[in-house]
Amino acid sequence: KQEVTQIPAALSVPEGENLVLNCSFTDSAIYNLQWFRQDPGKGLTSLLLIQSSQREQTSGRLNASLDKSSGRSTLYIAASQPGDSATYLCAFSQGYGNNRLAFGKGNQVVVIP
Amino acid sequence: DAEITQSPRHKITETGRQVTLACHQTWNHNNMFWYRQDLGHGLRLIHYSYGVQDTNKGEVSDGYSVSRSNTEDLPLTLESAASSQTSVYFCASSVKNEGTEAFFGQGTRLTVV
User: Fold this and answer.
1) Residue A34: what pLDDT?
2) What is d(CA A45, CA B90) in angstroms, rounded to the nearest whole number?
3) With 0-12 CB in 10 A as exposed, 13-18 as middle and 19+ as buried, what is B93?
4) d(Cα A22, Cα A90) in Å, to the nearest integer?
5) In a mutagenesis test of the A interface, which of B101, B108, B109 is the best target, namely the one with the most A β-carbons within 10 Å?
6) To the nearest whole number, what is the mean pLDDT of chain A?
7) What is d(CA A109, CA A100) in angstroms, rounded to the nearest whole number?
8) Is A61 a residue whose pLDDT tops 90?
9) Which of A47, A3, A46, A52 is nearest to A32 (CA)?
10) A68: which residues sit within 8 A by CB, 6+ positions away?
11) What is the pLDDT of residues B13-43, one digit of tens each?
12) Is A87's Cβ below 8 Å from some Cβ in B?
């Protein structure tokens, strides 16, 4: 069974600092990785998707990397803003086309103005 | 725009009652999923479907059932609601056979009293 760990569980950073969120997994037989954002009381918004053959994806200030050999993914948010305050979740799909996701418990981020 | 909608957004029910949560998507996705989110556990898979008339159990399926009579809908039924089923429920969908992004609804907060 895939175990997904996100560290740290919570963090606060001053506005303008870069954010680095880590996600580790135990089973390297993954097909894709997704990073989500969740605001309090809201649903999950997909941020980035990395296929297993890829090493990273970028969207604006966000960059996510995937290292299957070390069992780790990192989400990097450049020049953080108060609007980035949210919980960030990583999830792994272990089957081609089935998208049954195994989730970490999330990184709760507060960006201090 | 295509979307995935859940209803109701909030529901309070009594122990022992049957409850059905609705999920409707307009992307014509084959894959649909139900997850529950609880503090300390993250998101866990309840049931999933890869197409019409197909349903499968996830890791926490006891006490729940689903049916898939068309592509757009995957209702989740709690046969006899229990306090342990108080949670936030999320429906998701994705394209089949491509390992692509999963899209989530806004969630249903269910309280069993």
Assistant:
1) 92
2) 12
3) buried
4) 9
5) B101
6) 91
7) 26
8) yes
9) A52
10) A28, A30, A52
11) 999 999 999 999 999 999 999 999 998 888 9
12) no
